[in-house]
Amino acid sequence: MKNYKEEFLRLIKSANKITVITGAGISAESGVPTFRGEDGLWKNYRAEELATPYAFQKNPQLVWEWYNWRRELISKCEPNPAHKFLVKLEKEKGDNFLLITQNVDGLHRKAGNKRIIEIHGCIWRVKCVNCAYKDYNYDIPIKILPKCPECDDVLRPDVVWFGESLDYNDLQKSIEACIKCDLLIVIGTSGVVQPVASFPFQAKSNNKNLKLIDINPVKNPISEIADLYIPYKSGEFLKDV
Ligand code: OAD
Q1: Residue 121 near ligand 1, beta carbon < 6 Å
Q2: How many Å lie between the centroid of ligand 1 and the Cα of residue 98?
């Protein structure tokens, strides 16, 4: 691990602008189940079956029960050394740092990061299916089928579901930050869910000087093109760098 750390720190030191992409793996050591592991299952449902507009239309109660289960689980979790490392990095780099997370668990904010794009939304926000109402909501348990205080229609989690588009501005800002940085660090993503999975590829092909680091105990499509692939758990690797 020592050699990986030396190379990791060397790349960080020589980079002016740093962009970070995180996925469920960064929160695994905090106790948040990843999506594609066995522990990501809930009552034999997979995320792909519940995180869809169709599932919500068909059975909003079931979808809210799943989100309530995830909220209860996440509320007991604390940021781990990998989240804390990114807070330190943001403090060092200031405006030259941006964190793009696919996670909806809110642990990066809880750790203290401010320059974040939560590209798949946030489990601690709700939005109305009918009007523009949107707000933070930390209720545990959340009332199943919460109602909009403004129009009385149903509230849904403010997360991006399969088949839905990402926010246009978030997407533009994220792609630009990936292409225009000197160092792109990817942590804990399986690299199979688009469009985020393609960001490192776009960055590499548009910026020949860009360095790419991937931290993930399991090889994935991003580690194949990384300048430095670190085959360790992110919390374990980043705990004393
Ligand atoms: P996945 O569950 O697909 O992948 C988690 C990745 O984290 C895997 O590659 C693991 O090898 C890795 N991993 C596990 N433990 C780790 C650790 N301690 N340190 C570092 N890496 C570790 O999660 P995502 O790639 O984030 O979307 O999934 C992407 C999206 O698919 C999610 O945002 C979610 C999901 O369905 C929506 O909900 C829209």
Answers
A1: no
A2: 19
